């Protein structure tokens, strides 16, 4: 618990159960913006293909947020299957249902409220389970991993897709100050620093076999994109935590604006997908 108390004080997702409707819609808007990016779309399709999500299956999306991954899985399990999303935030679950209905997927998805560390599902009730950009923000995330394995049937698959916050890429001329901003944001906006790098070993320790790993690098170049907004929030967060001064924030932000104006901005974070199979015996 010492690590979870030290890290993640600025995490937007750590206390999501308390989101009101306005906050939930703001966070959902961020998730949907990221989801529409070309690299993100291609990445999502590839890791769901690697997980082997196919027609007729019942699959779980842990920490579903606005339901981006839930909806993508619902399309893959049709006909006859069901994609189930669960999130700690009742307000986000309501928004996720709206998005699914608007996409015409209401009949092939279910959404539930609940703690991912205490899943309200019977043992072996899913063919596959995934957590996508969730566990980096969850205290005691190892409990959630164990729950994912518990609710997956023998022979089923478990996968985790998450980012490496220490390796956040921001194109900026001040490399020294940018490194300080990235380090600050990684520490203060992420509960489980380094969890992604440990994931293959954690899955193997839970008894999964054929554990594999694949790396992804979504990138964006536009002002107003998800990673542009993340860069701006990272700098503001570093100033809030006292890791950079207000003058440094102003100069760094001005230089970032110049990158936008010149069409030179580049932002992104490496992600790792680790997955394995629950043995049949």
Percent strand = 15-25%
- What is the CATH T-level topology? Rossmann fold
Number-wise, the strands total: 10
Helix content: 40-55%
* SS field, number of helical segments: 10
> What series of H and E elements makes up the topology?
HHHEHEHEEHEEHHEEHHEE
Overall shape: it is globular
The average pLDDT value, as a whole number, equals 94
Question: What would you say this structure looks like, in words?
Answer:
With 281 residues, this protein is of the alpha/beta class. It has a single domain (2-167, 190-220, 271-277), classed as Rossmann fold. The protein contains 10 helices and 10 strands. The chain has a 7-stranded mixed beta sheet with strand order 3-2-1-4-5-10-7, with helices on both faces. A 3-stranded antiparallel beta sheet has the order 6-9-8, with helices on one face. Strand 2, helix 5 (90-102) and strand 3 form a beta-alpha-beta unit. Helix 2 crosses helix 5 (90-102) and helix 7 crosses helix 9 (226-240). The longest helix has 17 residues, at 246-262. The two termini are 33 Å apart. Mean pLDDT is 94; it is low at 1-5.
